[in-house]
Structures are given as C-alpha cells and as structure tokens.
Design goal:
Radius of gyration: 57 Å
Order of helices and strands: HEEHHHHH
Distance between the termini: 198 Å
Oligomer: single chain
Strand content: under 5%
Shape: elongated
Helix content: 55-70%
Number of helices: 6
Largest sheet: 2 strands, antiparallel
Number of strands: 2
C-alpha cells in the first residue's frame, strides 16, 4: 500500500506538536551525524524549540564552523563590517560630542562666563592661558606693524628715486641775457657814455 504525501502545515494541537517535534528532531540529528560520518563533512545543526530550549549537533567545534561560515558568506562579512563600522562611527560621534562640550565650556570661561563652578586652580590656569593669548596677539600685531613700516620705507625709496629722475629731466635752467649782435661786433658802442650837464639861469 502506497502512503500518500503528507501536506505540510502548522500543527495546532499542542500535544501532537510536541510529539512531532521530538520525532523529527531526533531524525534530523541522526541524519546530520550520518552525513558527517559518511561524507567526512563538517556539519553543525542548531535547533531551538518553541519553548526556547536548545538542541545542537556539531561534527567539530560549533564556533569554528560558524566562523568558517562567516568567512565564506559574503553577505555575512559585509554585515559584520557594516556593524563594526557603525559601532566605530558611534564611538567617534560620542567622542566628538564630548570634545565639543569641553570646547564650549572652555570658550564660555574665556569669555568670563560660567566661572562659578571653577576652582582657584582652574581660574589660575585660565588666567595664564589668557596672558599667553594676549602676548601672542601683541607679538603678531607688532610683527604686522614692522612689516607695514618696512613696506612703506620701500615705497618711500622708490618715490624718492622717481622724484630725483623727474627733477633731473625737467629742471628749469636760466636762459642767457639777450645781447644785440651789433654791440657784440662794436665794443666801443657798448662803452659809449652820454654826458649831461645841469645849468641854472639864462644860457650863455
């Protein structure tokens, strides 16, 4: 007599469900053992019952088989890497948040705010930090002044040089006095003098 194919569906009866689980579980564990012996295969079987009870079979170490599975399963590797990356990013976010909070507190204290919670030592360190900052600011300011003065001196030299060149090129020189050519040719004419007399009374 040929046995008909059993339809697979969920068993609703609790007692029947437990009996079926016990039988099938035993058969599955037996098949896993036979497969590992006959084919020299690494087999690991993990079963959790409805109540959460664990049943397992492994031809070798279960952990080693799981690790081997994870190494050969690309999706599992990607998932592990993603989880590790996510965890690392979470740690970085937490660390950055703490650093940001420290910087904000330091900034407020440098501005003279939230000083009530500071101890004497903390106030002394804060004062030293402000003194160093002021010294650095003054040194930088003086450096900028020196650089600006040096540039102005260089510009002054250039302007003085250009001024000297323009003065040499466009200076107004005195012209010689006009002398008549005839006077140049006849020196006696230039030396001629007109004699005049002043007479008082009727002419003689």
């Amino acid at each position: 007599m040929v046995r008909g194919k059993t339809e697979l569906k969920r068993i609703e009866n609790i007692s029947r469900k437990q009996v079926t689980f016990s039988k099938r579980r035993g058969g599955l564990l037996k098949k896993a053992f036979e497969l590992s012996v006959l084919c020299d295969a690494e087999v690991s079987l993990i079963i959790f019952s409805q109540t959460g009870k664990l049943f397992e079979f492994s031809s070798s170490s279960t952990n080693k088989i799981i690790e081997r599975y994870q190494k050969n399963d690309k999706n599992s590797n990607d998932k592990i890497i993603l989880e590790q990356t996510t965890e690392h990013l979470k740690e970085e976010v937490i660390s950055m948040s703490r650093n940001l909070e420290v910087l904000e507190n330091s900034k407020r204290r440098l501005l003279g705010e939230d000083l009530d919670s500071c101890s004497i030592d903390e106030l002394g360190k804060l004062e030293e930090q402000l003194d160093r900052s002021l010294r650095n600011i003054r040194e930088r300011k003086n450096q900028l002044f020196r650089e600006q003065i040096s540039l102005l001196k260089d510009e002054e030299k250039v302007l003085m040089k250009e001024n000297a060149e323009l003065h040499e090129k466009y200076v107004v020189r005195p012209l010689p006095l006009f002398i008549d050519r005839q006077e140049e040719e006849n020196p006696q004419t230039r030396k001629m003098e007109v004699e005049t007399r002043l007479l008082i009374g009727p002419p003689k």
